[in-house]
Write a structure and sequence with these properties.
Blueprint lengths: L1 H102 L1 H20 L9 H7 L4 H30 L6 H28 L3 H30 L9 H71 L7
């Protein structure tokens, strides 16, 4: 009798062990389903991102192609415009120069005559040729502001620049090894200043004072020439500031620029219209084309996820309902 009871308990234990092993197997299968579900959802997210990236790239590429088509035309138009403007400016500059020459012709001729008369006068009175120069008048018969400026610069060069150079040469070259370097350098600078002063005084006495009346007459010539040049500069400035280009015969270039401007406006309008059509129609067509080609795979993957989820739920219920010793 006891043997029978023992046998029955042994059978029950065998059943419990079998049920536990079955539960463990079910849990392994459930874990596999969960892993499949996780991988599928990850794959779906990756595929959806890939689809969106392709849509964005396709839209961007097609939009760039449209923009480039019109931008190339705009660049070509602008290149033509720059070329026409350059030719127009060149012609205007040339004709403006001709206008300046024409309106200052009398003054230019008068200055030429004054220079010839001054040259003839100086030659006849044996005045050295260098005395006709503006530099001479700036140093010895200073009158105008520009001449005072030249005189100032000359004094700085003569009494600061040249002595400084001579001092540096004395210290570093001429008397570099001499024990009396400082004394010799000082003497060199002093001698330089003396020579420069002597040259100035010599010219002053032997040229300016001797030919003063002629030089004074030359001063009058130079004043008249300067007045004419000032008048010519005023005429040139007036012409340069004149906004009326009609006198230069530039209608041909203005018409070309007007046509190019109209063409640019038309291209810009066509570009805007093309981009509007793209945003309103073409963009959605591109999205639909990519979705039609690739969304089927995503839907199938989602269906697989649902199937796996249902199987996992059913398996989990079986695990919960499985009682060791009484698993069905």
């Amino acid at each position: 009798m006891q043997d029978n009871v023992f046998d029955e308990n042994v059978d029950y234990l065998y059943q419990v062990r079998a049920d536990l092993e079955a539960v463990e197997q079910l849990k392994k299968e459930l874990a596999e389903y969960k892993s499949q579900e996780k991988n599928l959802k990850k794959a779906i997210a990756s595929e959806e991102k890939s689809i969106q990236d392709e849509i964005n790239q396709t839209i961007r590429k097609r939009k760039n192609e449209i923009e480039k088509t019109y931008d190339d035309q705009i660049d070509t138009n602008k290149d033509k415009t720059r070329s026409v403007k350059a030719k127009r400016d060149k012609v205007k500059s040339k004709r403006m120069g001709e206008r300046v020459s024409m309106e200052t012709a009398d003054l230019t001729e008068e200055n030429r005559q004054l220079n010839m008369e001054m040259k003839t006068l100086f030659k006849a009175q044996h005045v050295p040729a260098f005395c006709k120069s503006d530099f001479f008048y700036s140093l010895f018969m200073t009158k105008r502001v520009s001449e005072f400026f030249v005189l100032l610069i000359s004094l700085v060069v003569a009494y600061v620049g040249i002595p400084t150079i001579m001092y540096m040469l004395s210290v570093n070259v001429f008397f570099k090894e001499s024990k009396q370097m400082t004394l010799l350098s000082t003497l060199t600078v002093s001698l330089t200043l003396f020579v420069l002063g002597l040259i100035y005084v010599t010219i002053l006495n032997r040229v300016k004072l001797r030919h003063y009346d002629i030089l004074l007459e030359g001063r009058n010539y130079k004043d008249q020439i300067a007045a004419n040049e000032k008048q010519m500069k005023a005429i040139k400035n007036k012409i340069s500031k004149d906004k009326d280009d009609s006198v230069y015969g530039l209608d041909k270039y203005d018409d070309m620029l007007s046509e190019l401007e109209d063409e640019l406006d038309q291209i810009s309008e066509e570009k805007q219209n093309a981009l509007t059509v793209f945003e309103n129609d073409t963009k959605q067509l591109l999205i639909n084309e990519v979705n039609d080609r690739r969304l089927g795979k995503v839907e199938q993957m989602k269906a697989d996820v649902e199937h796996v989820e249902e199987s996992a739920v059913e398996l989990d219920n079986n695990i919960q309902e499985c009682i060791p010793g009484d698993c069905q």
